[in-house]
Amino acid sequence: MKEAKVKKKKKLYEGKAKIVYETDNEDIYIQEFKDDATAFDGQKKGKIKNKGTVNNQMSGHLFNYLENYHVPTHFVGQQADNAMAIHKLEMIPVEVVMRNIATGSLVKRYGVEDGKELEHPILEFYLKDDEKHDPMINEDHVVSFGHANEDEIKLIKRYAQKINAVLKSFFFRRDMLLVDFKLEFGRSKSGRIKLGDEISPDTCRLWDVESGEKLDKDRFRQDLGKVEEAYQEVLKRVYK
Ligand code: TMP
Ligand code: ASP
Fold this sequence. Notes:
Elements (H helix, E strand, L loop, with lengths): L7 E7 L3 E6 L4 E6 L2 E4 L4 E4 L3 H17 L7 E6 L2 E5 L2 E2 L2 E8 L2 H7 L6 E11 L8 E2 L1 H6 L5 H23 L3 E8 L1 E3 L5 E3 L8 E5 L9 H4 L5 H12 L2
Helix pairs in contact: 1-6
The structure holds thymidine-5'-phosphate (TMP) and aspartic acid (ASP).
């Protein structure tokens, strides 16, 4: 795996699952993944042992993999077990969700049958705002609120669809169904749209192909037990 040689400096920002630090290179940050887990906009709190390491390593592996498919990402290289160096991005406060199988909020909102394979992947936008419970928005909201222009949205949608196609088959070869996932994008110094944040069992739903067993954060959200084991199992399969 690529390694980055930058020195960690001042803490810039701490979120629910990650901490961002400045480095001795002004264009590069370090994002450190915590074992802290939250759900339902931070209302449910807990810890998942070694989650930080799993999410960092899985994200690094998948960012690297996606770059081979010409999806630009913020990944620079690994910096520690639970931390990676990333290109500084101006983040767009929109969560891009892609769905292949109906579950979660889709089922609650529209009453579709849980587990139904969708005829066509669904792409949704949510405003990243915990206090407002991440309300669903459409492209007009994104443009009108000034978060991204139409060309940027077009590109974000194209990247999200490509990421879905690439990762669906990546996980299927590892006996997992990519049910749905959440992406966040940002702008580099030169204005280029890049994939940011993370790709991990915190942000993807993954079901075992054979047993249908949930191998992601739903185990924590729904108190299903064996949470740490599921994260480890996903990482093991990602490395296969
Ligand atoms: P949802 O069914 O709860 O809307 O979740 C869709 C996908 O987005 C699922 O893979 C989990 C992920 N997700 C996040 O990464 N962060 C969030 O805050 C939420 C609500 C979902
Ligand atoms: N990440 C969100 C939170 O902490 C929601 C979730 O993943 O369920 O609240």
